Amino acid sequence: MLLTLALACVCLFFVGHAHPREISGNANVSALFAFGDSILDTGNNNNLTTLSKCNYFPYGKNFVGGKATGRFGNGRVFSDLIAEGLSLKPLLPAYHDPNLSNNDLPTGVCFASGGSGLDERTAKPQGVIWVPDQVKDFKEYVTKLNGVLGNQEKTNAVISNAVYLISAGNNDLVFTFWAGRSQSTISEYTDLMVTWTENLLKSLYDTGARKFAVLGTVPLGCLPGIRKIDGVISKLCSVPENQWADIFNKKVEGALNTLETKLPGAKFFYVDMYNSLLGLVNNPQASGFTDVADACYMPTTSPIPCPDASRYVFWDLAHPSEKAYQTIAPKIIEELKEKLA
């Protein structure tokens, strides 16, 4: 994901494929495009001058070949699982991967950048790709796609039938608001965040996007890095950060319902990452987890990760494990298919 924690605590914290794939009934999806932060980033930060990158051991410990690809986790991340769940491909490539193939363009790529956010003050100091700049990358991608397909009509079909997966807000709350950079109340700042989210969605809509899946923030107060700071003794989830997340999530979900009435042809699905992950934290045994408070990889205390990351809800101080994503993804994918049909 995320965050300042990704800087301070983690990183020390083909044309034939262009045909739409069926999702549900008469609905179809052509591609998946991901924007936002490290929940979705599949390696866009690797060649940036930033500390917010994870293309080294032990990241990718459980990835194919044990390779560190720049994903902020021990294996695949949430965007990969959504791409697979939509029957597109098992891995969503990073747009800035120098080895990106033209064959990958028609079925989607990832523009997300770990550590990024809606607020320029979140992304710029870290040297990562601010969300509005990710939209600029997307517009550049559309030009490349048109060159690959050689037909504007085919390009338009890919763009309009794709799903746009967005995760933004986590870092704004923890990096910018928490650090006092916003000089706003939580009510004022989350109002700003919702406005920025609406502007992002409208800018993508203006390029032809119509199907949006927008992630709420995760339960920030339950991240091991936050627990370590705010709940050293009891290891309880920190209440303030969870409250901030809940305030933003409720506002952005309401905004999506309003936007659906204002943007003809647009469909929006709110992805409840907060309660999905909180469910694992509150009832870990039901999904085979044994540790919810600690991270498998605790770089501040040991350079060696735990033997079995699948037992942990969190891989590091700021990111869920691949097993956590795999546990919550199936229900979300089915709801996404139904909502965006």
Residues in helices, as a percent range? 25-40%
- Structural class by sheet pairing and helices: alpha/beta
Distance linking N and C termini: 29 Å
The backbone outline, from C-alpha atoms, is: globular
What's a concise summary of this model?
By secondary structure, the protein is an alpha/beta fold.
What does this molecule look like?
It contains eleven helices and eight strands. α2 crosses α11, α4 crosses α5 and α7 packs parallel to α9. With 341 residues, it is of the alpha/beta class.
Chain-wise SSE layout:
Layout: H1 5-10, E1 21-22, E2 28-29, E3 32-36, H2 78-85, H3 120-123, H4 131-149, H5 152-161, E4 163-167, H6 170-177, H7 186-206, E5 211-215, H8 224-230, H9 239-262, E6 267-271, H10 273-282, E7 291-295, E8 312-314, H11 322-339
Parallel strand pairs: 3-4, 4-5, 5-6, 7-8
Antiparallel strand pairs: 1-2
Notable traits:
single chain; 341 residues; alpha/beta; 4-stranded parallel sheet; two-stranded antiparallel sheet; 8 strands; 9% strand
